[in-house]
Amino acid sequence: MRKITFASIISLCMVPILFWSSESQAIPSWARKYEVSCLMCHSGMPQRNAIGEAFKNNGYRMPAGAEGAFTRQQQIKMGNEDWKKTVKAPINSSFPQFDPLSVVLTGNLVNYVGPTYGAKPTGSTFNYNVPGAVALFFGGSIGDQLTVFGEVNGFGGNSTFDTDDDKTAAGPTTSVDSPAINANVRVVWEFNPGFNIALGNNFSNASWNGVSVGGVVNVSGVLPAPGTYAELNYTRGDVGGYSITAGTSMAAKNQTPIVATENKIDDILYLRGKVKLFGAGLLTGANGEFGNPYTGLDNHITLGAGLSYSEHKNVKNPLTGITPTKGFTGGYANETLVYGADVQGVYNDFLAGIALSHDRDLQFNNFKAEIGHYFYSWLYVKGAYSDLAASTAKLSADVHQPSIAGSLTAWLSSAVSLSGTYTHFTKDATAGTTNPDSFVLAVRAGF
Q1: Alpha-carbon distance 284 to 178, whole Å?
Q2: Which stretches does DSSP call E strand in 143-210?
Q3: What residue segments make up the domains of the chain, in order of their start?
Q4: What is the tens place of the pLDDT at every residue in 218-228?
Q5: What pTM did the predictor assign?
Q6: Which of 38, 82, 394, 417 is 20 to 30 A (C-alpha) from 170?
Q7: Section 368-388 average pLDDT
Q8: Nearest partner of 281 among 3, 13, 36, 66, judged by Cα
Q9: Which pLDDT belongs to residue 166?
Q10: pLDDT of 406 strictly over 50
């Protein structure tokens, strides 16, 4: 098969635009900068294709030295020669000339929960609503090496506040329309193409893989996600390739009050690596087997592995009475080492992924398997099996609540989607009560 250049792949990725309305309803920050459809880098938001992977691995810039050629909204130059002569401005840099903000609206249009049977049976519920959760996304390049992007979310939701004086769960509470606002950010400094350092929270390379809607599972779905982090990312590959992410993370997340005397950036250490056996290069987005130009996917097999380590367990401080967040939380509470591996594959319109993980302390196993198919570039169906342990439950066989789920996603434009998901649990709950089936119809729209 002939080699495909980066420029020709750009052209192929633009083919799906023909299937959308000419008046795109979603123009995120990066799309504004390059004046392209979101489909250039995504096989249906948020799943990244080969170009999207290469863009990320190059510090969120166009690979193969093509940044200047493809930038349509040019940067404002700082420290030009005239200013140097006048005020001796010492540093050359640049800032985005365009408005770097994007708005994304999400929410459930339909939410159905089926009846339960057993010790405490319940009836079914059916609710319909309008999307009410709003997030602001921002992103831009500063100079030739620094990139910043992130989101501010939580607008439009409800929060429950304790309104009595003792601030305990036993006291009265009030639900008010005053959402908890969260800020997520990622700052990337690129030393060389494929080698960068990143600081931030939530948008880690080890956990943010864009596989929730248009993709299939990888190891990030069965490992703890880093909170506030500092990480190094190293990627190589003109055809296929490999990438390594090594990071250190503060245990407390951004929405958790951080106890300055307890939480440190080295609370959790993590490592994530993957090898792409063939297909488009992880660093170039070109020169491999491209696959399907209508979805932007390239035929490939990727092997991945990862681990997260913390020497701390969450133990109450006898002096302060506070239980600091020094180790893993949620379903990974009281673990000190969790490790896992995954396999992903793409052939033409079909995707498949399997991921599993194991922990050293409570000896829990987590497993996910997903398979997906693009009927058209705008219509994607996925089936999933999930068996994740909940370490917060008592140690018994019932900590596992395996489920199967089917979903259908349609993109009405490049960044407007409707996604329906039906979930069925294959095992009863701990108390002998059946886990209810559920159906959710969700919408995501950005501009």
Answers
A1: 45
A2: 146-155, 159-162, 173-176, 182-192, 195-201
A3: 6-446
A4: 888 888 888 88
A5: 0.78
A6: 394
A7: 91
A8: 3
A9: 40
A10: yes
Q: What is the pLDDT of residue 165?
A: 40
Per the structure block, which two tokens stand in for 446?
């950005």
**Nearest CA to 362 among 313, 435, 405?**
313
Pair 386, 400: CB distance under 8 Å = no
What is residue 212's predicted lDDT score, i.e. its pLDDT?
61
For residue 431, the number of C-alpha atoms closer than 13 Å in the C-beta half-sphere is 8
- Pick the residue with more confidence: 156 or 53? 53
Chain-centroid distance of CA 267 in Å reads 22
Q: Give the fold, CATH level 3, of 6-446.
A: Porin (2.40.160)
Q: How many C-beta atoms surround the C-beta of residue 177 within 10 A?
A: 9
CB 271 within 8 A of CB 307: yes
Residue that wins the pLDDT comparison between 274 and 11: 274
Q: Residue 308, by phi and psi: left (phi above 0), alpha (psi -120 to 50) or beta?
A: beta
- Residue 174: CB atoms within 10 Å: 11
User: 363: which 2 tokens?
Assistant: 């000896």
The SS3 assignment for 151 reads: strand
Per-residue DSSP letters for 208-245? ----SSSS---GGGGSPPPSEEEEEEEEE-SEEEEEEE
Q: Do 334 and 391 contact (CB within 8 A), yes or no? A: yes
Exposure of 207 by Cβ count < 10 A (0-12 exposed, 13-18 middle, 19+ buried)?
A: buried
Which of 66-75, 90-99, 377-386 is the least confident region?
90-99
Of 251, 257, 406, the C-alpha closest to 314 is 251
Q: What is the pLDDT of residues 275-330, one digit of tens each?
A: 999 888 888 876 545 567 677 788 889 999 999 998 877 666 666 666 666 788 77
pLDDT in tens, 83-123: 666 666 556 666 666 667 788 888 899 999 998 887 777 88
The pLDDT value given to residue 131: 83
Q: Which long-range contacts (CB under 8 A, 24 or more apart) does 335-338 make?
A: 335/224, 335/310, 335/359, 335/360, 335/361, 335/362, 335/391, 336/309, 336/310, 336/311, 336/312, 336/360, 336/361, 337/307, 337/308, 337/309, 337/310, 337/361, 338/223, 338/224, 338/307, 338/308
Residue 361: closest CA among 340, 332, 326, 401:
332
The C-alpha angle with vertex 44 and arms to 38 and 50, in degrees rounded to 5, equals: 75
| Long-range contacts, 254-261 (Cβ 8 Å, 24+) | 254/182, 254/183, 254/184, 254/201, 254/202, 254/227, 254/228, 255/180, 255/182, 256/227, 256/325, 258/228, 259/322, 259/324, 259/325
The tokens for 443 are 């919408």
Residue holding tokens 């002096």?
Answer: 319
Q: For residue 402, give both structure tokens.
A: 């395996």
Q: Which of 390, 415, 440 is nearest to 44 (CA)?
A: 415
